[in-house]
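step=predict obj=Ammonium transporter n=458
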Amino acid sequence: MKGSRDIGRLLALCSMAGLCFMLPESAHAAEEAAVEYMPQAYGNTLWTLLGGILVMFMQAGFALVECGLTRAKNAGNIIMKNVLDFAMGAPLFFAVGFGLMFGSSSGGLIGSSLFFLGSGDASTPDGMWNLTFWFFQAMFCATSATIVSGSIAERTKFSSYLLCSALVSAVIYPISGHWAWNSLLSGNAGGWLGNMGFIDFAGSSVVHSVGGWIALAGAIVVGPRLGKYDKNGVARAIPGHNLPMAATGVFILWFAWFGFNCGSTTIADGTIGYIAVNTCLAACTGTLGAMFTIWAKTGKPDPSMTLNGCLGGLVAITAGCFEVSPVGSLVIGFLAGILVVCSVLFIDQKLKVDDPVGAVSVHGVCGAFGTLMVGLFAAPGYGTTTGLLYGGDVSVLLVQALGVAVFFAWAFGMGFIMFKLISVVFGMRVSPEEEMKGLDITEHKADAYSGFQIFSNE
């Protein structure tokens, strides 16, 4: 019996071999192409999905950083805002924002299709990829929206903030994102800025500066927290309640940033290795740059400034992580760390704009800086262009500068109009009494540290 089974198997194999021999050459080629293509396509989808999952985890990092750098009586309010940025922003980006950003371009200015993700047909390769690509990009949209919450923390009405977050996710972020990134979805003609050669690989300007400049507009309109400035206009420090929490948030952001930058390839190839190297090195030198700068200025290595230096380095390298060499990333990160400290002090003490977590400096200023640095440090043999310091054309730097100016004008301008209108119609700020008691009690009737707090809500 065993011998007969073996003979049967041998005959079956011979029959299959004969059938393959009789197949036309084109059929053989098609089969070989399918074998080669499908694993790569699946690998790209898996890599992009993994990157999106990591970027989603950044929401936890932002929540912990913002919560730790502000006071305990507002912790619950801050957590609520960060959760709602994602829970409300993702459906709005699905319904409206994705279409404005990645729909068919109307003169390179705005998308005009893919609302509700078009048909969402998952039975075709294009449909499968569009769904995956939406997921990845929705995480970026949520990141840009949640940046705003930190700059107006501890004194903003929750209901008014939700309206601001909705407008950022559905309209403000997607329209400017269309200008630079519309061509990322296969078959798109591209936005006007991207077609000029503007480079922002993973979003120093598209994501971070947009959020940072809207945050600046919000901090100006809402005004400083009670007690932040004395009668002579001198800034007073209002320390956060939990530095270990803030540090944990920074570590989470650092970890998840590899999804932000490496995942932006949307292709599982060898470039993700040096993108990870650049991302890590810039974060390290950003941390060092900020620590040494604040140490020199105050005589002490301040923890919160050092933590923001790490984030500043990450934001700055995001635009050029695909374009620069590891040596370039070391320089960009270190300079960004210095810039964070100088910017925080300038905004706080000279402009007298109260930004409790340094969101404007980390995301707006360092995002613009990192975008400009692509025009200087883009290295031959790495990305798609060559920067001025390596013998490249000045036109690259000029296009980068144009992009920085355009994103500032759009995000700050639209943010200021949005906050002003909402302030007039609904009111942006809680009453002084509510601010003194804390937003946990007055806005949510909750207490983040029930039974443990060392402050009074009365």
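step=describe
The chain has one domain: 40-444.
step=end
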